[in-house]
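Margin note from the TA: students keep mixing up input and output lines. Inputs are the sequences; the output is the structure of the whole complex. Example:
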Amino acid sequence: MSAVEGSFPIGSGLNRREFLLRLQAVGGLLLVADGLHIAKAADAPKYGADSMPHGVVDSPLVFVKIGDDGWVTIVAHRSEMGQGVRTGIPLIVADELEADWTKVRVLQAPADESRYGNQDTDGSRSTRHFFDPMRRCGAAARMMLEQAAALAWNVPVTEVRAFNHEIVHQKTGRKLSYGQLAKRAALLPVPPPSALRLKSPEEFRYVGKGGVTIVDGHDIVTGKAQYGIDPWFKDMGFAVIARSPVLGGTVKRFDGTAAAAAPGVQKVMQMPAPVAAATIHPLAGVAVIANSTGAAIAARKLLDIEWDDGANGTYDSDAYRAALQESARKPGKVVRESGNVEAAFQAAAKSIEAEYYIPHIAHATMEPPSAVARITAGKCEVWAPTQAPQLTREDVAKHLSIPAENVTVHVTLLGGGFGRKSQPDFATEAALLSQALDGRPVKVTWTREDDLHHDFLHTVSVEHLKAGVGADGRVAAWLHRSVAPSLGTIFNPSTNQEINVELAMGFINMPYDIPNLRLENPEASAHCRIGWFRSVSNIPHAFAIQSFVSELAANANKDHRDYLLELIGAPRKINPLSQKDDWNYGESPLRYPVDTGRLRGVVETVTREAGWGKKYPHGRGQGLAAHYSFVSYVAAVVEVDIDDEGKIIVPRVDVAIDCGPQVNPERITSQLEGAVIMGLGLAMFGEITFKQGRSQQDNFHQYRVARMNEAPGEIRIHLIPSPDWTMPLGGVGEPGVPPIAPALCNAIFAATGKRIRQLPVKDQAKRST
Amino acid sequence: MELQINSQTVTIDAAPDLSLLWVLRDLLGMTGTKFGCGMALCGACTVLIDGQAVRSCVLPVAQAAGKAITTIEGIGTTPVGAALQGAWLDVNVPQCGYCQAGQIMSAAALLQATPAPSDADIDAAMSGNICRCGTYTRIRAAIKQAAHHSGDTK
């Protein structure tokens, strides 16, 4: 790390943007923070939160309010979807504020990035981006209270100290509560960043401790929690929409007479054409609005619609898979290369080749996409379970042809997000229907069938791997072709290769110590909506690479763990740019190098904790996988018990994560537990298939997800301690998912000798007769 | 039509074949009971009818008339319901929380019938309730804790 970076610790109180602005104010050239090169300020790369639209806001005037009654209200500007952010981020503020957590309320921010900074809740980055800013925010508020008390007592501020919701005059023991000081403190200026005094980590009361109940817990268990599907108004219309079953299809003609005559129906209408300027476009369709969602669903069945399927009406998963395989067996665009792969293959004692298939999977959030909107005097209010509040606001405004300032987006709780709710088409639909009803409140609910037919699906991919190994079994040459339709197609339909963020999810940044390698990305086109699914392209990349490493170890007759550690190689810090990764999850390549020592660490920890190397009878075994994603390191050991019929029981899963310092360890553990369940479910059952352009899965009987009786008997999460709070934080929400599917399949191999190269597993573990 | 919901009588004007779920959510504004699938596949809409766990999304409202309907808004007044809610918070079960109303209602029916359930009992009673966040191991722990707790108070 450079001197400049090193002189920019948490305690300096400067964020990077302020830091750059200050240097800029001095004039002339400046040393950019990664210390690599001299550049003009305008050219300085931005990382982390500063690289996001609208960057960071850390003012206590925006995020903290203290009442006369002593209640502290902390604004949460990120969306809660189960990851615990409405607990974790206010906890950071409260800790620096020296507030008593039992006297803290959390208030959800509406969409307004000009006020709150970036609100996109995705990419496993809320805590890692806002740990430092929220500390500054809490510290500034605490110092204002201290200053107010010092003025009240007419003593130097150095003699007073905040402790547990009070300011204490240390010499005399006098105390003033936060409630008593609130009004006075509010009149004082916010301390400048340079004056901020942050707590030392040993003074933390909540950060790193966890041990708190999630802030929405009580509302959740009593049925009071408000999700996007829940706002209720007396005169509300309840809508469902029949959408084009094929991506890009349109309504050729429709007859809504029967539907309009059905009980409770208020209106039947064709959805307005999408507005080109918007980012996410609702699908073409016909809406039915009734006095209950049940009545609307029943009437929708009576619609007579003739669709024009358009260009994607022939999309067929079997044919598409064959096309992907054909592409994967031919050279494609080289996206990273080192050494001389051809020569190394020729010199190798043996070549080993394998191909993996990972299908489309659907998010299937338990709360299907849903939203409520109403319009009063040209101003639209939307209640939406959105991961992208600002985009929701802007897209609704564009579709209604009103200024964004006239759109208020109330961010509700999300009944699951997993990336689906980053695309706010459902909120736009509600707004358009309210507009058609002269502003009356309208709730749009997607049925489960709608959700599975029209999701922004996880991509589908074929991963082709080939290794040249020496007589000792070590890898001398490595060829990997990844071919998958890109999520870039939802913004630019002509995109036909993985975009940089997809390539950099475990493909080009594969950190193994291999002298000769070539990574290729052949072309693929999309015929359904592709989006972000929790951990995104890491799923296929990790599945293929971690399965292939297991195959290579078995081929070399070596222990998988030992083989994997040898392949990772010695502990070293790799600059992502040296791997052609110019993204690195948006983080500085120097502050966040790929650290193979940490990757080794999670492998060593998880295998030790899981008792790796146990001898099992036939039908039982352990599987291992490790993966770096979202600037965190995760390894998993899955244990399976498989009967003669191929029924798979998972008695136990161990996961180790190194995500740097841990703000709320309890919620990290819960995220990792959830990632195990989701990872096992998608590996065992997850698949959306298409015929004639139409998704073939209607509901949970056809799109299966893990249930209680399929959950592991035991999940053990091992958090790698990281006591140094100057170390950068890693992501948590997503990185638990990628290692689970390959660890499961490697366990199936250990138990049965059966190699699974295509997901889902379904009954592939059944012994062939 | 009259319904007995959480020990209160409410009068509604609904088609007899409208499912109880939409009566609760859309006609009465009782939104604690959740929609998840509409086919009794996920359990998000679970309520108790005369103490039995029922998927309200497929129950025509006429069939609930004259029976005791308990929803998540009312389960806390029963000893088992209160014990479950307390255990859910102690164990920090919820992630997004959307399915948890249905989980708690299924667990309440389980504990009322089987006060000290085994793992197999829990799996059998709870496998109709999907949690996409994956809180199953904590749900198991919370049910056991609640069973222990409500056992103490008897």
